[in-house]
Design a protein that fits this description.
heterodimer; A: Rossmann fold; seven-stranded parallel beta sheet; B: alpha/beta; Rossmann fold; eleven-stranded mixed beta sheet; seven-stranded mixed beta sheet; 42% helix; 15% strand; elongated
């Protein structure tokens, strides 16, 4: 977990203005207590915040010297036994802020099925599960991660061990609640929602209702997110009691060392510009966000056709492949991750240098989450949003929400246009390949062999040379080791 | 933190129980602590073999004891049945079953002590490979043990259920310790697996189970009894034409000889439910083939059904080796695997199953009329019971006395270093040394079908004049082959052991016999030799290929002492001439 990266002074100001906003808008769920983070200078240690000795030791072992800001703010309330609504970016120590109070309470009253953490994505669930395990390794903590795309029987076995902590995505958890005999959450003491606004959204409505029905009302609830919904009705569903609201960053705030640009392009040449941008910044690791699973796949295939090391990540891939893609990208074996909003939140990959919004984010909140994937932990980063003639209105909304105008990304049109032919050819090929994959999938049985695009790398070398030679004089070496190497031939 | 007090609380329970009841193998068996270190020890077959002890056990003779997690006290008197801690009615029923079989006067002592030893080892939940001809005896014993285990298990589950119900009526619901202490089941319901070769064996075993539960008075309910009678019984008398067969073959022909079956049995209170669905059955009685078909075969993919077996019995293993040993091996490879689907109350599943230690809490009993290297190796591989393993290898007298004609036996010994090379070297020796000396009217006996195919291909290539009898040839073909051999239109006759085992037909026109390897059935060596049609004035010649890995077969046929002498002899070719 990395430290909070926002600077203090500005933070305070932003917070105060934000506070006014929330105060006026709040129709009060309960009488929410506002946290004062004014005197941040006097930082307390974990012990001073009331964290018990075994957990302090665990924190030290993990290299957490001082509590991060969100922890400073949230821990006192949480340790007093209050419900908490926490607003903080990922990477700011959020997991610690809710894990520590849970574990402290668990130490006092050891019990199975003690705490449930709900997250919107599987990747996030694994990440949180690992952190719980790391914190609890010295005290015999049992954690189960229950997400979709993994064998039900193995998970049932994990649940049979009667874990203390369950980290789950809502869908699969409901599946187990309904189908796994002898598993219930009647004794649950803690409910935590990470990326709470997304969980409280419509997407998980049915599942969440089912879960809320089977867990006791007598419990503590923490909501954490980088952005939080204002809608009272939504928060009511989480049935918080007298929550403390703590916040260390403002809504829609982006980090300073992040350079944000937009690039205005004709829709017709959208792919070409993407290729151009990636080529300009070859050698850096980049995330490309697309709107749909299909586009994601298409763009990834196209980039590979052009000899770029791209891996896809979207909701229609199996869990194994998703983890596989993510790990390849994390371990820097691949430079480009093409994904949907599934990867927009929470993922903590420090080395991302660039985020490209290939498709415009549908909400301004999503924009903040997406560009938050780069410029992490004090590094600098670059975010470029591709704006076509159809996206102007949506883009303006985002700018309005951000409260500032972004600079246009400068590029030489002629250089881009050189790429048009190749890109379009690659796009055609990608479409054909996608179609083939679809048909094979439908044709059934041989599915397993053919649908693993995530692993099969088929890149045609003929484009490679061309692109590289055009990629600007000084960047010839960017392709470096093994780009476009044919690892496996299909069939 | 939440160091659950499971271990200690259970431990306390057992010590207090021990005071109340002197011996309780059931609880002791389950309460044994097996964790990483112990598990690794049990899996280390090589080290266990090294540290095994050779002991003379009453009744079953020379035996090797492979240690489990803890030591057992040295062997004490086993005649006192009350020392088992078993249900009395059950003991009574078992005793009356045991008394039923007629025993020769002179064998009585021997049979009695054999039964006592088997009973003691079985009741102690030790793994056992027993060489025994007393089928009625050992069957009654293991059936009683199974029922005893089932009843204890049922009572435990019912007791825990009640405990949980009472606890859940309390205000705060059942507490952690109660829930943890009520872990009492596996992933699936079946906990006993009995493998036997034919439906007639299943018929006999199930009838024994019934009589042990219900006693002899015929009271007690059995579900689907008529269907069972119809499908599993068979003729009890042979047609008179078969009267000249050896006894063991007559026995093979009697009764229902179907070898593809599986039946689930559930026990509830006093009702014995036959044909219960496997998911709801306590005992599975199957032939290797029948079970294999649902593991990953034509009839399903249900390996999870044998993931939580507590007691596995392999009955009449010597017949299974004549059926298809691969099926048995496949079953053992699936036994205790982690299930692919779970449909049970997961809060009641024992920790040991979650930890993958199922194989350490499972008793394996194997019974055979004679020993075989494959049985021992399967036992050593699969037996990981924390209570250890006993392999009996009694002294044998051999079957050479059955030979009725004067003969000269030539034993050819070839050197083998690596057991995996045995079959290659045997073939090489046969081709180099034996084939050049072949004379017409020679019978070549090849026990394994794989070896048979190899030799056949070689003979075909060399364009030798030969015919074959093997298990895949139809009757007409076999008849023709025998006739051609008899009239000397072809010089050699090649037969496999399995063909002979299922047909037992006299071969005619044999002047010399070559054993490519000793048959695993101890009687066959002398039976083949007795087929001789040669002039009585001449000595009949039998040639046998041997290597050091054939020791067990050699003991079965030649007797323990003579086998040792043959093996100790350094000469490549030894001749034994009879008067």
């Amino acid at each position: 977990m990395s430290d909070s990266s926002s600077s203090d002074g500005e933070d305070k100001n932003q917070f105060l203005t934000n506070r006014k906003k929330t105060l006026t808008k709040k129709k009060t769920v309960a009488e929410a207590v506002e946290e004062e983070v004014e005197d941040v200078e006097e930082e307390k240690t974990f012990a001073e915040l009331g964290v018990s000795q075994p957990l302090c030791d665990a924190c030290h072992r993990l290299g957490w010297v001082k509590p991060s800001k969100i922890q400073q703010a949230a821990l006192p309330h949480a340790l007093q036994g209050k419900d908490v609504i926490g607003l903080a970016e990922t990477g700011s120590g959020k997991t610690g802020a809710f894990a520590i109070p849970v574990l402290q309470s668990l130490l006092d009253h050891p019990q199975a099925f003690f705490c449930l953490v709900l997250t919107p994505t599987r990747e996030l669930a694994f990440q949180i599960g690992q952190q719980f395990e790391a914190l609890g390794s010295g005290i015999g903590l049992i954690v189960a991660v229950i997400v979709g795309g993994v064998d039900m029987a193995a998970q049932a076995m994990a649940l049979a061990r009667r874990p203390h902590i369950i980290v789950a995505t809502p869908g699969r958890l409901v599946d187990h609640l309904e189908n796994t005999k002898g598993f219930n959450l009647k004794a649950l003491k803690f409910l935590i929602m990470d990326e709470a606004d997304r969980i409280l959204n419509m997407d998980f409505e049915v599942e969440l209702d089912k879960i809320l029905k089977v867990i006791p009302r007598e419990r503590r609830t923490y909501l954490f997110s980088a952005t939080m919904t204002k809608k009272v009705s939504k928060l009511e569903r989480a049935s918080l009691r007298d929550p403390a609201r703590v916040s260390i960053s403002t809504r829609y705030k982006t980090v300073d060392n992040l350079k944000q640009h937009y690039i205005f392009v004709p829709n017709k040449y959208k792919e070409t510009y993407l290729v151009y941008l990636l080529n300009e910044h070859a050698g850096n690791s980049a995330i490309v966000f697309c709107a749909t699973c299909a586009t994601t796949m298409q763009v990834a295939v196209m980039l590979r056709q052009l000899g770029m090391q791209a891996v896809p990540l979207h909701g229609q891939m199996s869990q194994e492949k998703r983890l596989g893609s993510l790990n390849k990208f994390k371990s820097k074996a691949r430079e480009i991750l093409v994904c949907t909003d599934v990867a927009a939140r929470g993922l903590d990959i420090p080395h991302v240098d660039m985020v490209i919004n290939y498709d415009m984010p549908s909400q301004s909140k999503d924009y903040v989450h997406r560009v938050g994937r780069t410029a992490r932990a004090g590094r600098s980063g670059l975010a470029i949003t591709v704006v076509t003639q159809y996206d102007v209105e949506a883009y303006q909304k985002i700018e309005a929400n951000l409260g500032k105008k972004l600079d246009e990304y400068k590029c030489v049109e002629n250089e881009v246009m050189v790429l048009v032919e190749r890109t379009q050819e690659a796009m055609e090929n990608a479409k054909i390949e996608m179609k083939e994959m679809d048909e094979k999938r439908k044709s059934g049985k041989k599915r397993r062999q053919n649908d693993d695009f995530g692993d099969t790398e088929e890149s045609s070398g003929r484009f490679k040379m061309g692109i590289r030679s055009m990629g600007g004089s000084g960047k010839g070496g960017s392709g470096g080791g093994g780009r476009g190497g044919k690892k496996k031939m299909r069939k | 933190m939440a160091k659950r007090k499971l271990k200690s609380s259970e431990f306390e329970a057992t010590t207090s129980e021990k005071i109340a009841k002197k011996i309780d193998h059931f609880s002791d068996f389950w309460n044994q602590k097996v964790e990483g270190v112990e598990s690794a020890q049990l899996e280390d077959t090589r080290a266990r073999t090294k540290s095994s002890q050779k002991v003379e056990l009453p009744g079953i003779g020379a035996s090797s004891i492979y240690k489990g997690v803890q030591d057992f006290p040295s062997f004490t008197d086993a005649s006192d049945l009350s020392g088992l801690g078993w249900n009395e009615g059950l003991l009574e029923n078992m005793t009356s079953l045991l008394e039923e079989t007629e025993v020769d006067e002179k064998n009585e002592q021997q049979v009695e002590s054999e039964r006592q030893t088997i009973l003691k080892l079985t009741a102690e939940y030790r793994d056992l490979l027993a060489i025994s001809n007393d089928q009625d005896g050992y069957r009654s014993i293991y059936c009683a043990h199974i029922i005893q285990h089932l009843i204890r298990n049922k009572n435990l589950i019912i007791g825990n259920k009640r405990k949980l119900e009472i606890a859940s009526t309390k205000e705060e619901g059942a507490d952690e310790e109660t829930i943890e202490s009520c872990r009492d089941s596996g992933f699936v319901r079946p906990i006993v697996l009995i493998l036997c070769p034919f439906k007639k064996d299943a018929y006999d075993i199930i009838n024994r189970l019934r009589r042990i539960i219900h006693g002899d008075d015929g009271s007690g309910e059995v579900w689907n009894k008529n269907r069972f009678e119809e499908e599993y019984s068979g003729p009890t008398e042979l047609p008179p034409t078969r009267a000249d067969f050896p006894d063991d073959h007559k026995e093979l022909l009697l009764g229902n000889n179907d070898d593809a079956f599986r039946i689930g049995i559930a026990l509830s209170k006093k009702v014995l439910k036959l044909y219960e669905k496997f998911e709801k059955a306590d005992i599975l009685v199957c032939s290797p083939l029948g079970l294999r078909m649902i593991l990953n075969g034509d009839d399903g993919n249900e390996a999870h059904l044998i993931s939580s077996i507590n007691i596995t019995v392999v009955d009449r293993t010597d017949i299974m080796i004549q059926q298809n040993w691969e099926n048995v091996q496949l079953i053992f490879s699936h036994l205790h695997s982690q299930p692919s689907k779970i449909d049970t109350d997961i809060s009641r599943v024992r920790k040991l199953y979650l930890d993958g230690h199922s194989k350490h809490f499972s008793q394996l009993l194997m019974f055979s009329r004679y020993s075989h290297e494959l049985f021992t190796s399967l036992m050593l591989q699969s037996s990981q019971n924390h209570r250890g393993l006993v392999v009996s290898n009694p002294k044998k007298s051999g079957t050479l006395t059955d030979i009725e004609i004067p003969l000269c036996q030539e034993l050819h010994k070839f050197e083998v270093k690596d057991p995996n090379e045995t079959s290659d070297l045997r073939f090489k020796y046969f081709v180099d040394k034996i084939i050049p000396t072949l004379v017409p009217r020679t019978l070549i006996v090849i026990p394994s079908y794989f070896d048979f195919v190899r030799v056949r291909n070689h003979l075909k290539k060399a364009e030798e004049s030969f015919v074959m009898c093997h298990e895949y040839a139809n009757r007409a073909k076999v008849d023709r082959a025998r006739e051609m051999f008899y009239h000397e239109r072809k010089s050699y006759l090649v037969v496999t052991e399995r063909w002979y085992f299922f047909n037992r037909r006299q071969l005619t026109g044999v002047h010399r016999v070559i054993f490519y390897q000793l048959p695993s059935h101890p009687l066959f060596y002398s039976e083949f030799i007795n087929m001789s049609d040669a002039d009585t004035s001449q000595r009949f010649l039998a040639i046998l290929l041997l290597c050091k890995y054939d020791r067990m077969r050699l003991e079965n046929t030649f007797g323990t002492e003579m086998a040792a002498a043959v093996m100790a002899n350094k000469q490549t070719v030894q001749a034994i001439v009879s008067q």
